[in-house]
Amino acid sequence: MTTVTGESTTDGGVLGRPLDSREDPQLLRGEAVYVADIDLPGTAHMAILGSPVAHAKILSIETKAAEQLPGVLKVATAADFTDVMPLPCIWIPGGVESHFPPHPYGLPGARPVLTGDTVRHVGDPIAVVVAETPRQAAAALAAISVEYEPLPVVTRADEALAEGAPQLHEAVPGNLNAYWTCGDKDRTDAAIARAEVTVELDLVNQRTINSPIEPRGAVGDYNAATGEYTLYASTQGPHNHRFLLSALVLGIPFNKLRVIAPTVGGSFGTKGYLYPDMALVLLLSKALGRPVKWVDTRTGLMNSTVQGRDHRQHVTLAGTRDGRITAVRCTSYANLGAYPSTIGPGVATALMGRSITGMYEVEAAFCEVYAAFTNTVSLGAQRGSGRAEAAFLMERLVDRYAAEIGMDPAEVRRRNLVPKEKFPYDNGLGWTYDSGNYAPNFERALELAGYADLPARKAAARARGKRLGAGIATYVAICGVGPSTRMSKEGMLGGTWESANIRVHPTGEVAVTVGSASTGQSHGTVFAMVAADELGIDPAQVQVYEGDTLKAPYGQGTYGSRSYSMAAPAVALTARKIKAKLVKAGAVFLGVPEDRVVYENGGVHEAGNPENAKTFSELAMAMWYGWGLPPEIEPALDETTHFDPPDFNYPFGTHVAVVEIDELTGETEVVDYTAVDDAGNIGNPKIVDGQIEGSIVHGLGQALMEAAEYDENGILVSSDLTAYALPRAADVPFFTLDRTVTPSPHNPLGAKGAGEIATVPPAAAVVNAVVDALADLGVTHIDMPLTPEKVWRVLEGGDR
In this entry, which stretches build a coiled coil (predicted)? Predict the structure, then answer.
């Protein structure tokens, strides 16, 4: 069973209590409203024609037959949208020369809303149909005739950079978006050259497909009377999408676009991006004078929504014979896909490269990334993006190093953990870890996993025809994306602060409105808890609003495990402004000096005289009336905060996987999984535990079964759930969870990111465990995913 024995952070208030998620009942009853549920009066339905080939010139497009089919309202191609700007890329590799398709505003360009000359991946959108029904729109797609002139295809980043490789973009010579580095190359190379021991690995961190329960969707509604557009979209950043679409794609006034995110059925990073469908439904709604709706299919999602991971790496670790790591070096080829996604280049460079040393004190480190374009779906964030790839390479290297020097992998890690007294810690690659106490976290994981008993368990498993192995993986995950100035140095073309507004109604009820946007993280529960804890009231008095740019203050959205360490501090600071105002006003209402006013349990009272008091509801009504307030105190309670932290936060943890391999079939079963994570102070442990469990399963999927497979023609052969395996309940064990608590000094809650951190180590832990189980056969590495066939072939002495 799942066991949680970590330290509680509650001080008797609301935070730290495992409250049920208030969002769950409507989700479980099927009452939540998703984009697919939005049916405005007169809605027409859009379908998108994606290219069936990966690389080709478009010689002609014939749409007349489709236009004449029943119910068809409009067929459009790129020629109909010549005045629409391409989608921009807003995170470029910082500090280095980079090459992108152009954008009229001098920004890096990405893709056009429809492709008119050259398609560059299967699924590249080339035409749209709008019809009265979804079936009629889909039927019309089949009637569009396109003539292609095939071009050579390349799907691997390293091959795309080779001399003579097929070229994707005229503005990007040699397909190289950027050559990006961090760390000290000369120092690292010198340390490797003089090391007592070096180990090297060639790693493939395979491309994977984000698979949220809800595919993407969009509804556009243009109001001709006001000239206003409304976009309903499954987005994790409605405010960002409002700005990007209005100013940089459509060229319309910012005030003329409203973006609404209804219930979003998961994202894992995919729904923070600009996609052509968002602009198309708005443009076509204006053209037709009625709402236009588009909802993707599962196969459509797999051929159009950003994909994750996809690094090919050569990595080296140097150290001493007594287990001290002295240097780490990585050369990585990152596959950006056919077009730069909204933030894809930053994901492939900084988030990975600056994270490669993890929890270890390493004297010299260097990482270089060649970010390249290929004929595949664009690369983007996937839960734990960059950090997961970094942890995988480091943790695999540590196990290889331990085997080389004949030392237990746990002991090697123990000897290299960053000591507590060295925080804040500069990792030499660009990150300064805010706080950490790694050793207790590490030892707790080994204890809960029964690491000392593993030799006996291995022997017992062999007697049953099974091979048992254990794998350890530690991690540090940069989270809480901000501060804005720091992100600008990483190449982010925009701010990364967060905002919150609190209004206290005359009845004493509280409205919290945040710029963040939930994709399933129970914001409505947790942000209510934060406000209630600060104000000393019942969370039931607090209602949370988000996801509508007309109602919410501007905010950056949810990504990078930032909601509780960015938006929640904004809520807390705003609540403190409310309290401070009530103390000032309380002096008036109580007839005492301000320094005699005590704010406690939601009300104010005179120090030493609790009978002279006002409750929260009484204060709310008094402030609403505004009677007797001096000029320096405004009536009503309505405050806003924009929170920009001094630096990132750095959660960390240790995971231990125990696997059993069937010697006859090669099937790998994860029989035990222990995770001890540290996300600073926890707001709602029940919600965090759910995030941790989901994150682990995500990581196990990559380790054991998930892979986006392209053939030599650039066809995605794993384009539906019959060919792309996802973990199910029967594929994972019950988890043993625990936590340590090391508060972050960078926000008033002491919080660190939690939503994706447990996706970072599982792939490394599982591969380490499988290699451990097969070590007596001379196995030193197997590329993911570790399918039964692949493991069976290794058992039979085949390829690894």
Answer: none
3-class state of residue 667 by DSSP: coil
What per-residue string of b and e applies to 290-321 under the rule 16 or more CB within 10 Å gives b?
A: bbbbbbbeebbbbbbbbbbbbbbbebbbbbee
Report residue 39 as tokens.
Answer: 């049916």
With contact defined as beta carbons under 8 Å apart, do 646 and 484 qualify? no
> Cα separation of 89 and 337, whole Å?
13
Q: Which residue in this structure is represented by tokens 């005045």? A: 83
Question: How many CA atoms, within 13 angstroms, populate the side-chain half-sphere of residue 657?
Answer: 32
Residue with tokens 């007294």: 421
What is the 3-class SS of 405-421, one letter each residue? HCCCHHHHHHHHECCHH
CA angle 281, 282, 288 (to 5 degrees): 85
Alpha-carbon span 158 to 124, nearest angstrom: 22
Question: Could you give the CA distance from residue 24 to residue 614 in angstroms, rounded to a whole number?
Answer: 35
Q: Which residues pair with 499 in a beta bridge?
A: 642
The residues with which 500 forms a beta bridge, in sequence order, are: 514, 641
Give SS3 for 224.
Answer: coil
713-749: per-residue pLDDT in tens? Answer: 999 999 999 999 999 999 999 999 999 999 999 999 9
Local structure of 708: helix, strand or coil:
coil
Buried b / exposed e across 233-248, counting CB within 10 Å, b at 16+? bbbbbbbbbbbbbbbb
Residue type, 666: G
DSSP 3-state of 218? strand
Cis geometry, peptide bond prior to residue 419 (ω within 30 degrees of 0) = no
- Asked if residue 20 lies in contact with residue 270, where contact means CB atoms within 8 angstroms, the answer is no
Q: Is 12 left (phi over 0), alpha (psi -120 to 50) or beta?
A: left
Task: Please say whether the beta carbons of 257 and 235 come within 8 A.
Answer: no
Report the alpha-carbon distance of residue 657 to residue 637 in Å, rounded. Answer: 51
**Confidence (pLDDT) at 1:** 41
State whether residue 144 is helix, strand or coil. coil
Residue the block writes with tokens 């945040």: 514
Tokens of 734: 């019950």
Question: What is the phi-psi region of residue 548: left when phi exceeds 0, alpha when psi lies from -120 to 50, beta otherwise?
Answer: beta
Q: What is the pTM of this model?
A: 0.96
CA count, 13 A, side-chain hemisphere, 598? 11
Residues of the chain with pLDDT under 50: 1, 5-10
Q: Are strands 44-50 and 292-295 parallel, antiparallel or unpaired?
A: parallel
The crossing angle, in degrees rounded to 10, of helices 616-625 and 568-590 is 80
